[in-house]
Amino acid sequence: MSDTSSPAISSAGLASSSAAPGPAPDKLELAALLCSKVCHDLISPVGAIVNGLEVLDDNPKPEDRDFALELIRKSAKTASARLQFCRLAFGAAGSSGAQIDLGDAQTMARGHIEDAKTSIEWNLPRLLLPKNRVKLLLNMLVIAQQTIPRGGRLTVDPVGEGETMSFKVSATGLNARLPQNIVTMLGSAHEGPIDAHAVQPYYTSLLAESCGLKVSLAAEGDAMVVSAS
Length: 229
Hints:
With about 230 residues, the chain is α+β, with helices and mostly antiparallel strands. It has helices at about 25-55, 60-90, 100-115, 130-145, 180-185, 200-210; strands at about 100, 120, 130, 150-160, 165-170, 215-220, 225-229. α1 runs antiparallel to α2 (about 60-90), α2 runs antiparallel to α3 (about 100-115) and α4 (about 130-145) packs antiparallel against α6 (about 200-210). It is globular and about 60 Å long.
């Protein structure tokens, strides 16, 4: 049976337990906030595609045409990867009670996150897990990525095994940091209203709660660790 208590933050002492909780969004507002986040994530690559097409419309010189086509190709690939990731991480991704292949989750995560600066070390077995556990994992990766703004490595390890498996995502990189707002939002004592910038960690805590887990973000040595247990 899922634990219906609010997810607790790490014991690292980074958020005050006396803070007044902010108002939780209702279902309609939560859906709207998640839609806003997805749109925000897609604006940049889609805008770059539009810019590239405008360059082509101006009958450019050959070198400018080549640049525009490369921009369009790269941006279209980025937009497609982000859409596929968001569909799995935030969308329905199958019927209620559906299971998702961790191999598919790995493909989506690499397509969305990996680039010249950031790599993923994936240490999970390939098996089917309940949909919300896989969605939780992908959202934990998003949080971990935000702790290494200059890039680095995300290491994904299992905690337990089988259908009750949970996860640990360790982020290491230059100038790794612990975003205070995310640590606070993962806990029950978050402050202020939840907006489109804060909805992702809040949604992560709801996913963890639906799985009977609690998610936390804390520093462990040089690594910033997102764990669900």
